[in-house]
Amino acid sequence: MVDARERRRVLWIGGVLGALLLLALVVGPGAAGDPTTDPRMSSYLTTDAGVRGLYLAMEALGQPVVRNRLPPAPDDPPGALLLFAPQHPPDSAGVLRLKEWVEDGGLLVLGLPRASGALNRMLGPTLPLRMVEAREGVAAFPTERGATHRWLEGVDSIPGIRRVLDVDVTAGPDPEGEDDPTSPTDPVEGPTPSAHDPSSEVEVLMADPEGRPVVATWPLGEGRVLVLSDPAPLGNRPLQEAGTGAATLVARSVAGALEGAAEGQVRFDEYHQGFRGDGSPARALMDLLLGSGPGRWLLQGIIAVLLLVLLAARRFGAPIPEEEVRSRTPLEHMEALAVVYRKAGAERTVRERLVSGLERRLGRKVVVDGRLELTPALRDTEAGRRLLAEWEKGGQVELDALARAMDDLIAEMKG
Questions:
Q1: Helix (H, G, I), strand (E, B), or coil: what is residue 290?
Q2: What value, to the nearest 5°, has the Cα angle with vertex 54 and ends 53 and 55?
Q3: pTM exceeding the 0.85 threshold for the entire prediction
Q4: Rounded CA separation 144/60 (Å)
Q5: Chunked in runs of 10, what are the mean pLDDT values of the chain (415 residues)?
């Protein structure tokens, strides 16, 4: 019965796992290797949106490129920091640290995925975004100012732009202080004029055919900020298919920032893409289970199996206690056997068995023709005399006394 119940339990668990696997194959997410599944613009990724191509290109140009897996800090080495479409945008404290680092002479190359209230309020001019109403995007061209700028020498256009900037240095403060990701086409108001240096000069280097800004730059303290309204052209696939105009612009701006900086570095910000320096196997497992489609399917399957196992093993009541069966001790067994022999009147049988045991222990025959014959050495002992006296009683012998006399004789002989 137990074996049948166990077989049914195994079949149930196997059936549930099979159903989950079938469901995952039918309606589950795409394969983990699909290059379109990971939207992060990380230098670690070779997906369509990743920027590993840009990282390798700058490395080939001899730039000292590194990856930042820790939060940016004001005391970081000088140079350039590239932050493209952060999956976890910096909070107000993080933006303050960025601002201090830029003001000390750094270059921040920022690719905005959507309007960012915290960045707008603290980096200088407000930069509300407007969505370009074009299915395939439009091209950005150098402005009159950008045509003569050394960063854009030889760059005639950047295709595939879907968002433009709405630079406004006089906009009022954002009353909520947060972004509204549900309305990417609406401008997001930024800081009061006092939130940035009034003398900052915003240079629009590239714009769409309608004159709406796409690339803008302005000084901040001793450093500079370069903003791209749409960082998508820097991705691996666009870089391969649509040209290198955006990459050329970034590479030249970075090279200019490193001039005269002996310890300057080009850092790709991976911290805000989710690649944290404080990672661990447990964090990696949680990121897999909670941050990816296959991981969430796996987690749901594990929970379902655990629930099934718990339900299958649940007891609806206290277990029935087993009865304790106490076995007899050798003494109890002998007493019970003696009672049986006494009731059966088999004293002679008991005498014969006791004599057989004595002969076995002495190693010789002691009863000849019904007489008990002991050696002189045994016969002269106290136990020997008692044994002979009990034997002479014949049918009236006390079996207990006869057994004790035999045991005493053996003990004396050994001792």
A1: helix
A2: 90
A3: no
A4: 31
A5: 65 70 55 62 87 90 87 82 86 85 89 68 69 76 90 89 74 39 36 41 89 90 89 88 84 84 82 72 68 75 77 67 71 68 72 77 76 76 80 72 78 75
Helices (H) and strands (E) in the chain, counts: 13, 13
Residue 317 Rama label (left phi>0; alpha psi -120 to 50; beta):
left
Looking at residue 264, its pLDDT comes to: 80
User: How many Å apart are CA 209 and CA 158, to the nearest integer?
Assistant: 12
Is-contact 49 40, C-beta < 8 A?
yes
d(CA 166, CA 251): 25
Measured from the Cβ of residue 397, the count of other Cβ atoms closer than 10 Å reads: 18
Contact in structure between 71 and 271 (CB atoms under 8 Å) = yes
The answer to whether 166 touches 128, Cβ cutoff 8 Å, is: yes
Sign of CA dihedral 120, 123, 127, 132: negative
Whether the Cβ atoms of residue 152 and residue 142 lie closer than 8 Å to each other: yes
**How far is 243 from 4, CA to CA, in rounded Å?**
67
- Judged on CB neighbours under 10 Å (0-12, 13-18, 19+), 288 is middle
- Is 197:217 a contact under the CB 8 Å cutoff? no
- Cα(291)–Cα(273) distance, rounded to whole angstroms? 12
Could you give the CA distance from residue 157 to residue 295 in angstroms, rounded to a whole number? 41
